[in-house]
Amino acid sequence: MRVLVNAVHAKSGGGVTTLRHLLPALAARPGLTLALAIQRDQRPLFADLPAAVTLHELPGRGKLGTVLWQEQVTIPALARRIGADVVFSPANYGPLFGPPAVILLRNAFEVTSLERRLDKRLYWAAVRGLTWACFCRCRRAIAVSAHAARAFLAHFGRDGDPRLSVIHHGVAPLYHPPAEGEARESGLLLAVSDLYVQKNFETLLRALARLAPTRPELRLEIAGRRLDPAYADRLAALVEELGLSDRVRFLGGQPPEVVAALYRRATLLAFPSLVETFGNPLVEAMASGLPVVCSDAAAMPEIVADAALLARPGDDGDFARQIARLLDEPGLAAELSRRGLARAAAFSWERTAAATADVLRAAAER
Q: Is residue 345 over pLDDT 90?
C-alpha cells in the first residue's frame, strides 16, 4: 500500500515531533510504501528521513495558499501521480477530494474560549470549519487521546463515529532517567512548551512568586519558542512585575537532545496548560524519571494516570501547594518518578505506527 503523508502544516511543536518519530516507525511496517510532501522551508525539519521514505518538496506558500491551493489541488494531483492508495494528513485538515483521506485530530477548539483577540478567534473559527469539512469527507480519522475524541465529537454535536480511532503518541528512547554521575539540580523547575496562550504560564509564574520568599534556591527554566510574540511579551512583563527576573529563564526553542538533558537535570516538570489533546512533554518527562505537576484538565489526567500530581486548572495557589509537596517530600517525588517510568512504558512509537497502519489500510480498502 502506497501512502502519501501530507505534512505541509508540520512546522512546529507536536506536529514536527510526531512525524520525526512516526515516519521511521511507519516505514518499518511491512507492506507500506511512504511518500512525504512538505514545503521547501520545512526541509531542515526532516533532514534525517529514512531512505525508504520518498520526499516531495513543494513550493512554499502562506497559510491561505497552503489550505486553499496546495492541499486541495497540488496534494491530490501528486497523490494521483504517484499512485497513492491513501493520503494521511497529520493535522486537523487535508484534501477534501482525491484518494481516500485519513486526518489526525490534534488541535483543540477549546482554545477559542481563552482568546480575546479578534484575529485569533477568527483563525480558530476557520480551523473549526475546515476541520469539520475534512472530517465529513475523510474515510477515517485519528484522535491522539480519548479526551480529544470526546471533545471533538461533542463540539460538533455527535455522540460517536465509527471512523474515529484513538491512538496515543509514543515516546523516543532519547528520553531516559539520569545516567550514573548525572545529578538533578535542587530547586530547578522545568517547563517545556512553545509560548501560546493556552499553555497558561501565568499560573506557573504566580505559583513561583508564592513560593519564592521562603525558597531562595527555587528557579524556573522555560524551553519553548515565542510562537505568539504578544503572549510572550505579556509573560516577560509579568516576570518583571512579580520580581522574578533573577529566577526565570526563557530558553527559547531547543533541540530534542538539549530538552532531554533538561529533563534529566531538573527537579520537576511543571505543566500548567489548560488545553491539551495529548501533551508530549508529560510522557517525555515521565520517561526521564522526572516527577510531574500538571493541570487537572483536558487530556492530562488521561496521559499521566496516577503518575503525577494534579492541580486545579488556573489556580496558582494550588499549583504552588503541589510543587511544594514534591519539593518537601522526597519519598513522594521518588514514588512519582517510579510510577512515571512505568506509565511511560505504555507509550511507544512502534505501537503508534502499528495502530496507524491499521487505520490507513482500513481507509484504503473500504
A: yes
